[in-house]
Amino acid sequence: MEISTGRPTDAGERLRRWRMVLGGGEGDGTGCALSGRDAEMDAALTALYGRSGGAGSRTRAGERSAGLGGSAPQVARWLGDIRTYFPSSVVQVMQRDAIERLGLSSLLLEPEMLEAVEPDVHLVGTLLSLNKAMPETTRETARAVVGKVVEQLEKRLATRTRATLTGALDRSARVSRPRHRDIDWDRTIRANLKNYLPEYRTVVPERLIGYGRAAQSVKKEVILCIDQSGSMAASVVYASVFGAVLASMRAIATRLVVFDTAVVDLTDQLDDPVDVLFGTQLGGGTDINRALAYCQSKITRPADTVVVLISDLYEGGIRDGMLKRVAAMKGAGVEFVTLLALSDEGAPAYDREHAAALAALGAPAFACTPDLFPDVMAAALEKRPLPVP
């Protein structure tokens, strides 16, 4: 049975697709003309990815190329077009490219523009970098955009994070005289296999192993120490969401600290990750040593504390001081985790020398996806080897 594609011939369909890929012009070699929806999609792509490389540039003989220009209405129409022609995941990539390639950041300070965009983590990062320049007329719209993304991330990440960490807290708080409902039967049986009675085909438990009741009091302390330099934008967004999730768990006392060359403690805003994000200031220098000094001063129970440093490790402060603080914290019993990134993009450029030095101290540095983060935290809470990708 042959399924019609709605095109005259298979050869014609192939030419059409090559034409869409190559973008037209004398050099594409297809000789294929587009019409209707195809032509409109091609125009939207050309405005962003035209060979001129940007809006308003000129090609040979002074001919003006396609582009988005600096007109907010024109950009708003383009944003509407790409949402019509492409799926959401593609729209987000195109928006990101438009901001980077065509310098549209300033237009995001206009409410009408923000209402037209498809919210995602990278857009939030751009808005946060513009936070201080944002006019009051735009701020509420920007908060709504950021709030929508945060809500989506919480729905995706919160349930699994709470479940994973609750299990880790229970396992790390085992007691030797548990109540019946708190007995860890799997571990109890394995610990008492030597007491197996063949005639009764049963194990007689001499020692019960049980879970502690982690929810009754704070069992662990977690400090998230986040580098807010410009390259860490997506990591700041995810870390703020995770900070709010951790803060909602009564068994974990959570502190969230952001830093560049200064250190800001945003713990009192953890009930609203949107407030946390607008309390950051992306960009600027980096002083990891100063940030770790502050975190170290807040540790009261080293053996029950996990410090998570999220940074690309480009230290502008005192390198030896940074390493000595990490060594001192680990020597006191603190679990120290170094994440080069907390995002879906993988590891950014980072200082390999510092990463190697931290690994030598027993704090391997690695990039972590948001989906892996609950497992990393569970391992740290239980003092198990980290699931390094």
Describe the structure.
With 389 residues, the protein is an alpha/beta fold. It contains 14 helices and 8 strands. It has helices at residues 10-22, 36-49, 72-85, 88-102, 111-116, 121-129, 136-172, 185-191, 233-247, 273-278, 288-297, 319-331, 352-360, 373-381, and strands at 196-197, 202-203, 220-227, 252-259, 263-265, 305-310, 335-342, 365-368. The strands form 2 sheets. Strands 5-4-3-6-7-8 form a 6-stranded mixed sheet. Strands 1-2 form a two-stranded antiparallel ribbon. Strand 4 and strand 5 form a beta hairpin. The longest helix is centred in the middle third of the chain and has 37 residues, at 136-172. It starts with 9 loop residues before the first helix and ends in an 8-residue tail after the last helix. The relative contact order is 0.08. Residues 1-8 and 53-66 have low confidence and may be disordered.
Main beta sheet strand tally, sense and closure: 6 strands, mixed
Tally of separate helices: 14
Major β-sheet strand ordering? 5-4-3-6-7-8
Q: How would you spell out the order of helices and strands?
A: HHHHHHHHEEEHEEHHEHEHEH
How far apart are the termini?
46 Å
Unreliable runs? 1-8, 53-66
Structural class: alpha/beta
Taking all Cα atoms into account, the compactness measure Rg is 27 Å
* Average pLDDT metric: 80
Shape descriptor? globular
| Beta-strand fraction estimate | 5-15%
Q: How much helicity do the residues have?
A: 40-55%
Count of individual beta strands = 8
